[in-house]
Design brief:
Largest sheet: none
Low-confidence stretches: 1-10
Radius of gyration: 20 Å
Helix content: over 70%
Structural class: mainly alpha
Number of helices: 4
Shape: elongated
Mean pLDDT: 80
Amino acid sequence: MNTRIRLKADSIDCDHLKDLINFCITQILHSTGIEFKQDLEKAEDLDQIIAVHNRYVNTIHERCLLHKMVKLLKQAVMNVLNLILNFQALWDEGIHEIR
């Protein structure tokens, strides 16, 4: 097996995948929170505050792939992540010794 491929495969594990997901969600929440705060400062009445909050919640749902309109994208991402986990499981079982 190619050494470069082996090194990449050796570096994959569930903790790295969890770290990647946590990083993405943290980035989404941080950037969306900044946008929310800026929009909230511009709100002049309760109706605008409610509208800003609703936009904030909807934006989080979209960016975290929870909104029904991004269902296909979410499914594609989940398929890739599942492939990574399946590959890791096969690797751990010793697939690297099969020629």
